[in-house]
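pinned: reference chain
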Amino acid sequence: MAIRVDAETRSTAGQGTAVEHAESVTPSVADLCLADVFRAWWPLAASWLLMASEPTLIGAFVSRLPNADIHLAAWGGIVFPVALLVEAPIIMMLAASTALSRDWQSFVWLRRATTMLGFALTVVHALLAFTPLYERVVVAAIGPPEEIVEAGRLGLRLLLPWTWAIADRRFHQGLLIAFGRSRSVGLGTAVRLAVTISALFACFASGALPGIAVAGIAVSCGVIGEMVAARVSSRAVTRGPLKDALPPLDPLRLGRFVGFYLPLALTPLLTLATQPIGSASLSRMPDSLRALAIWPILNGLVFLSGAAGVAHNEVVVHLAGRAGARPVLRRFLVLLAAASSALLLLVATTPLLDAYFGGFSDLRDDQVDVVRRVLWVAVPMPALTALRSHLQGLLVHARRTRGVTEAVVVFLVVAIAVLVSGVAQQWEPSLAVILAALVLGSAAQCAWLAWRVRGLTRALHSSAA
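pinned: its C-alpha cells
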C-alpha cells in the first residue's frame, strides 16, 4: 500500500517554502513528546558514541607502541585532519539523504550523486597521499616537525578507503533514518567498532607494525565494515516501503539538489578546515611535538563528550514537522546540553582525569599535567555542539541551508583569529589556544544560527497570518 503524502505539502513542492518535503514517513498524527524524541535519538546517539570512542581506542593502542609521540603526532597532526578535510563535502549526505530519500526516484538519483562525489574525493585523497602533492600541499601547509612527516605519509596512504566507505554508508544511513530505522544505524556503528578493535588487537599482537600503520589499517577496516552493514540493513527499506512511496510532484534534479546540498557540503568543509589549521598552529608554537602527540587523545575525549549532541541534528531534521515539535525539541536540547558538558566537567575536575589520560590512554605524567591545565577550557564545547545540531536541524528541515554555511564562515573567522593571535603571541600552553578557538568559534556559530532560525520563525508566522 502506498504511503500517504500530505496533500498540502505536495501542492507546495518546488516552491521553496519552509515545509517543502513530504511527511510521508512519519505523518503528524499526534503531538510530539519527549519520549518520541528519545526513541528517535538514542540509537543515533549510541552510534555516534561508538564512533567517537574510536579515536580514544586508537590513541590507547598507539601510545603503547614504540615511538608513540611520533606516531600519535603524525596521526593527530597530519593523517586524521587531512582525511577529514578531504571527506568533508560528503559528510552532510547523511542529512541530505534523511531529508530527500523519501521515494524511489529520489533515492536512485542521490545514490548516483553519492557515487560520483565519493569517487572524486577518493581521487583527491590518492593524489595527496601518493604523489609529490603530499610535500607540496600537506607538509607545506601544516609545517609539521620533520620527524613525523614520513609517518604521516604512510598513514594517509593506508586510509585511502576512508572517503569512499564513508560516502556510501552515510547515504544509506540517511535512508534508514528517513524510514524510521535508526536502530540499524547504531548496529552498523557497533559492527564498525568491533571490526576496528579486532584489527587493532591483530596489528598490535603482530609486533611488526609501527603505530601509524596500526591506526590506519584498523580505521580503514572499521569504516568498510560499517559501510557493508549499512548497505545490508537498507535492503529492508529499498525492497519495501521505498518502492511503495508515491513519487514527488517535483522530481529531484541537478539544479535543485545543488541549491540544497552545496551549502550543506560547504558546512563541514569549512568547519573541518580548522583541523589542519589547528595542526599548523600547534606546529608553529612552543613544544610542538608534545602538543601534537597529546592532541588526538585530548580531542578524542572532547568529541566523545559531545557525540550525543551531534546525533540531535538528524533527530530535528526528522521530527521538526511533527505537531508540537518545537517546544519538545527545545526541552530535550536543554537536558542534552547540560548533561554533555557536565560529563566533561566531571572528568576535568576529578581523579577521572588521571584514570583516563594516565591510565587508559597511557600518557606520561608531564603530558597528563598539560591536559589538566587545559581541559577545563573545553567544558562548554559539548553543550555548544548540541545547540548547533538543534539549530542546524531546524534550518535543514526548512530547506534554508544557506544560513548553515554562513554560520560556519563565522565559526571559521573567529577560530582562525584566535589561532593566529596565539601563534603570533606564542601563548602557552598551545593546546589551550586551540581549545579556546574551537569554543569561541562554536559560540559565534550558534549565535548566527539562532539569528537565522529566528528569522525563519518570523517568516513562518507571517505566512500563516
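why pinned: Residues 81 and 276 are 5 Å apart (CA to CA). Confidence is low (pLDDT under 50) at residues 1-29.
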